[in-house]
Design brief:
Helices cover about 40% and strands about 15% of the residues. The chain has one domain: Alpha-Beta Barrel (TIM Barrel), CATH 3.20.20.70. It contains eleven helices and twelve strands. The strands form two sheets. Strands 1, 2, 3, 4, 5, 8, 9, 10, 11 and 12 form a ten-stranded mixed β-sheet that branches. The chain binds ligand PBG. Ligand PBG binds next to helix 6.
């Protein structure tokens, strides 16, 4: 008789046949940084902060100690520092540029990824510049390219465009190459949905659109495989080095699909709402946080994610180490 239970009989047998691994190097920690003297807790994401430059260096040091794959930076600006062009995103002395310089000075061997988007820097909160009530795709490309170049110049090891403008990867690749950064890889948010799971992030980054929503540029969750494959194919052809799916768990099928189709590392973003749900249940004592988090992240690895962006990166690295 076929008895699958046979291989589950002892811890030694289970260990022997286990294929999926989760290691700290697979994890990237998202960090928020603001131009203020002190860190500020984020209400909808217990345990996460809008960091000051000082506290950012401190937590990035922990990420390095923990052996994480790296960190990804998001800037947060006070309302009065925003404008309609999102110029804070590509300012030489912008908050992410300054943060990147500080991190690379403190830890040259820490991998620093810069999120490349305008929504944290525009007064209207959209991911590009407006033409009337709609986001002007082609005018935005130039600003995204400028943002990526300024991030590379500040020392970012990877740039990660998340604005969902058509042609953004090609525009950024071309600009990086022309500016002397042909070696800086692009981690593309290739398959990014218009998702309700970004709610806590938008509170954290104060980046909710002032009117309307992002449905005319981010993807429709119900569109289907064709849209995901089309987006990923374009970013692949435009020269993305890694392809990301976002959010993660509701779109696990697409992680699998991309893994099978593309000869590039696949990333998945376990987003703010996914973090907040687990955290809220854990704080209520309804679930075993450690086991739930490790199970979720292991599931992403099993589906094919080489890289996982998660607010749980530090805890997960510790739990993995503890065994
Ligand atoms: C910027 C961006 C967002 C997230 C990552 N980059 C917000 C959005 O698209 O509205 C969300 C990440 C998260 O929810 O953790 N465009």
């Amino acid at each position: 008789m076929e008895r699958p239970r046979r291989l589950r009989t002892t811890p030694q047998l289970r260990r022997l046949v286990r294929e999926t691994t989760l290691e700290p190097r697979n994890l990237i920690l998202p960090l928020f940084v603001h131009p203020a003297p002190a860190p500020e807790p984020i209400a909808s994401m217990p345990g996460q902060y809008r960091h000051s430059l000082e506290s950012l260096v401190e937590i990035a040091g922990q990420a390095r100690e923990a052996g994480l794959g790296g960190v990804i930076l998001f800037g947060v600006l006070p309302e009065e520092a925003k404008d309609d062009q999102g110029s804070g995103a590509y300012a030489e002395d912008g908050i992410v540029q300054e943060a990147t310089r500080r991190l690379k000075a403190a830890y040259p061997d820490l991998l620093v990824v810069a999120d490349t988007c305008l929504c944290e820097y525009t007064r209207h909160g959209h991911c590009g510049v407006l033409q009337g009530d709609t986001v002007d795709n082609d005018a935005t490309l130039e600003l995204l390219a400028q943002t990526a170049v300024s991030q590379a110049k500040a020392g970012a090891d990877i740039v990660a465009p998340s604005a969902m403008m058509d042609g953004q990867v090609a525009a950024i690749r071309k600009a990086l190459d022309a500016a002397g950064y042909p070696h800086v890889p692009i981690l593309s948010y290739a398959v990014k949905y218009a998702s309700a799971f970004y709610g806590p992030f938008r509170e954290a980054a104060d980046s909710a659109p002032a009117f309307g929503d992002r449905a005319s540029y981010q993807m429709d969750p119900a569109a289907g495989y064709w849209d995901a494959v089309r987006e990923a194919t374009l970013d692949d052809l435009e020269g993305a080095d890694l392809l990301m799916v976002k959010p993660a768990l509701p779109y696990l099928d697409l992680v699998r699909e991309l893994k099978a189709r593309f000869a590039k590392p696949i990333a998945a973003y376990h987003v703010s709402g996914e973090y907040a749900m687990i955290k809220a249940a854990a704080l209520n004592g309804w679930i075993d946080e450690r086991r739930v988090v490790l199970e979720a992240l292991t599931g992403l690895r099993r589906a094919g994610a080489q890289v996982i962006l998660t607010y749980y990166a530090l805890e997960a690295a510790r739990w993995v180490r503890e065994g």
